[in-house]
């Protein structure tokens, strides 16, 4: 089985977004991908200038393996950043965390520039995760375990979140990143390949509906156990959204990759998806979007 993983954060998860996150990661990731059959990964740069520089180095080191997705801060970066990504040889753009709706007029020049250069855009869609899961706790990943209510650790977490949000413009919210806003972008830039992450979680039906009618709007199925369970239990694939509009993405610790692929394969088999339909999700749709197969 051949696979393109369309949603991979660049770095070890226990170090993600730190200065040492990327060190040695590419080699370890490659070994895990070889075991599973992942031929290429859409590697997402960490925030900031350094994150995009590290992505450039990864692309230079492994152009056969890396699909480079530059990190674009729509509220802070100049439109010229899109041209910079193109000149670096990046395949596309990842964006998340905005203070205005994705389809706000202020963002349209970025999308116009991406369309002109043939760059793809991966948008986070739905609720943005955080450092703790107050429903499932650490059941999926240890770092998601929330601190006990009223303890010093909870106070420290609250203060860290307060400090983090102080760097963002007022209006920053998951409400700005809902899948319906990709519909506007797809209307104005029908030539632009657009990927919504996590099938819009939890607004799956809207994500399915807009993908149904926009030729170059796709969604990935990344998001770990929660998104997996919702998609499978909701019966969306084949009923609300065609396999030709979905991409496989792990978006998890590389150590979970093998299990994640196996779980999706088992789910697809149980759904009755044909080998061709599974190949579309695991490989062919991404290959077309990123220009590896016509």
Describe this structure in words.
- Helix content is 40%, strand content 13%.
- Strands 1-2-3-4-5-6-7-8 form an eight-stranded parallel β-sheet, sandwiched between helices.
- It has a single domain, classed as Alpha-Beta Barrel (TIM Barrel), CATH 3.20.20.
- The longest helix is centred in the last third of the chain and has 15 residues.
- β2, α2 and β3 form a beta-alpha-beta unit.
- With 294 residues, the chain is an alpha/beta fold.
Topology-level CATH name: TIM Barrel
Q: Radius of gyration, rounded?
A: 18 Å
Please state the second-level CATH architecture.
Alpha-Beta Barrel
Largest sheet: spatial strand order = 1-2-3-4-5-6-7-8
Features:
294 residues; alpha/beta; TIM Barrel; eight-stranded parallel β-sheet; 10 helices; 8 strands; 13% strand; globular
Provide a short characterization of the protein structure.
Helices cover 40% and strands 13% of the residues. By secondary structure, it is α/β, with parallel strands linked by helices.
Topology summary:
Elements: E1 3-9, H1 25-36, E2 38-44, H2 48-61, E3 66-71, H3 80-88, E4 92-95, H4 108-117, E5 120-123, H5 152-165, H6 180-188, E6 194-196, H7 204-213, E7 217-220, H8 224-234, E8 246-247, H9 257-271, H10 275-289
Parallel strand pairs: 1-2, 2-3, 3-4, 4-5, 5-6, 6-7, 7-8
Helix pairs in contact: 3-4
